[in-house]
Amino acid sequence: MQNFTLSMPTKIFFGKSQLDVLGEQIKKHSGSKVLICYGSNRIKEDGLLDTIINLLNESNITYSELSGIQPNPRITSVREGIKIGRDNDVDFILAVGGGSIIDCAKTIAAGFFYDGDPWDFFTDKAKVKDTLPVAAILTLAATGSEMNGNAVITNMETVSKKALRTSRITPVFSILDPEHTFTVPKYHTAAGTADIMSHVFEQYFSTSEDIYLQTKLCEAILKTAIKYGPIAMNEPENYEARANLLFAGTLALNDLISFGLDGDWSVHIIEHAVSAISDLTHGTGLAILTPPWMKHVLDENNAEKFYNLAVNVFNITPGDDKLEIAEKGIDELQKFFTSLEIPAKLSEVGIKEEQLDEIAKIAVPSEPIGSFKELNYNDVLEILKTTF
Amino acid sequence: MQNFTLSMPTKIFFGKSQLDVLGEQIKKHSGSKVLICYGSNRIKEDGLLDTIINLLNESNITYSELSGIQPNPRITSVREGIKIGRDNDVDFILAVGGGSIIDCAKTIAAGFFYDGDPWDFFTDKAKVKDTLPVAAILTLAATGSEMNGNAVITNMETVSKKALRTSRITPVFSILDPEHTFTVPKYHTAAGTADIMSHVFEQYFSTSEDIYLQTKLCEAILKTAIKYGPIAMNEPENYEARANLLFAGTLALNDLISFGLDGDWSVHIIEHAVSAISDLTHGTGLAILTPPWMKHVLDENNAEKFYNLAVNVFNITPGDDKLEIAEKGIDELQKFFTSLEIPAKLSEVGIKEEQLDEIAKIAVPSEPIGSFKELNYNDVLEILKTTF
User: Fold this and answer.
1) How far apart are CA B92 and CA B84, in angstroms?
2) Rounded to a whole number, what is the distance in Å from the CA of B80 to chain A's nearest CA?
3) Mean pLDDT for chain B?
4) Count of beta carbons in the 10 Å neighbourhood of residue A375
5) Nearest CB to A7: which of B3, B11, B224?
6) Do A11-180 and A184-386 show the same overall fold?
7) What is the pLDDT of residue B41?
8) What is the pLDDT of residue A160?
9) CATH entry, A11-180, from 3.40.50.720, 3.40.190.10, 1.20.1440.60, 3.40.50.1970
10) For the domain B186-386, what is the CATH code?
């Protein structure tokens, strides 16, 4: 087990009616003028936005709004948010939505006091220093962004999707009410489930040694996603399913299962390249790419990890032929994603064959990616061709 | 799943040589005059105390000492610590040891600014208000106290052992170096393993609904304790085993597996009564009492939980007769504790038969205890007689 520092500053208010703490919590962090960041019409239609605005009014907190933030949030939205925030002299950023909204809000918080362009944070041209406090009202089980210091932003001009990691943008609090996820459509519930599972896989497939405990925690989260993803899709107002998925999503990427190990993150890097050029839903891209990545990297030396996944998570009968059982596990994962009605091929989601080369180049601009097994341009192109 | 608030303010520095952060972290919390709290000679003999003192000297931090804190820490030690702390005008409390030391240090921190007797906190006569910051250097995998707001203290005059729970005494940071547990003797490694497992059982056996994720996390920690407890006993300097046990101990009682549910805690209440009159090692008492508690409360209505424990943790072959398999699981747990060389009977650890009645009365002074299944005085006496 590697050395680590565990620091979890985000306070999570989980459960029914937890929105009631909103005003008091914003004030606790000296907020009085809030920038509300959101995307879709869903939170307008289901009344959540009105409820939030009423709560702010009751607490004498003023607000301005940045709406229309898209999935794979754009740096242009970040710029717009910073401008609205400055024009209205806001002192607190509130994200209402899933990972895209929260990531955009965090980057606005990071860029608010910075004189240059916020894309500089993603090109290592600038480091995040002073930030505004940011909080999240989560409406989709998937991201983990509600309890970590990560933000992923897309720049359409440079056709790139990059990640920022700094504890300075970790939310001060997040509100997780499973009922706020009742209106998530079937397709996005499936993609969110795949996203949660992919976050776990990126940490499960680690070459770090002596991480039995973390491995078992990973399997606990995977089993939860596999059990409740389909239930939430078919019974959108099943509180048990939505609650277990929501908490699983947080634990999959709030560092809990990353303490003491190095993750791989190849599939995320490749998916970021895919969605940078296609605007594909992140979780869908991850589900398409994960089984082919697994088949590509599986070999006799690392079969044990895949074998454990097959036996412990997919209940494949143990046996002597580790490779065979490992492959059965990967097939089961593919079947599971198919059962969630997620497309299995990039060709089914609008990617053209001639784009594969460009995707591989974006994913591997120079140095190989991944740590569980290093992948170069040719490896990534091969994986992409398999998924086509 | 019940509503919950997740708040984890303790920063954990985990791994080799993490002690190096000590001076900087104490200063970060405005400490300059520290009260070091410790118990046994072990930390003197293995050089840890000298190392700590050197680090404090290098950081120009002065210190005074409270030594000789016993297992089942006494309120008299707390009073002594408060006096030494006040005489030396300390501004920071540093625990070096296992749960007993940390609990004593936390209570000193709580009582430092209180004019009355610190036992008042345990009898609800007073509430904890202002406290000194407290930190822990953990030297035993067991307690969880390094990352929670609990303290358990024994009062020999009133023959009682009581718990205090307040976030005000949660450590500001804790240092967990698995190498600091290399010198833990075999007997205490076994008792610590049982302690970790008991903490998990108290939360696993919950009547709260819709807690699949938490249940799976519990099983992950149990499997880790079962795998590494025996290895750590037989190979005391096995870093992998010590590291996994140490982190498992923290996760077993840092609230992670308690979010969203009510725990039972009957076995802890009964054990506190046993060790209040006998000074038995806490983990040993828990190991003796847990299987008989399980057999006493198991019935057709709750057999599913015990069945899951048997199948998922003790690898018993699944089957139709839930009760039979549940009982096999309990037998496996008993065998595991026996394999750790932990006594199976209270009579083997110096308890006299005529004391059983007194223990039951201390454990159940009036209202029934437990929530998974309520236990009255007669239930507890029956459990105690089974263990005799």
Assistant:
1) 12
2) 33
3) 96
4) 25
5) B11
6) no
7) 81
8) 87
9) 3.40.50.1970
10) 1.20.1090.10
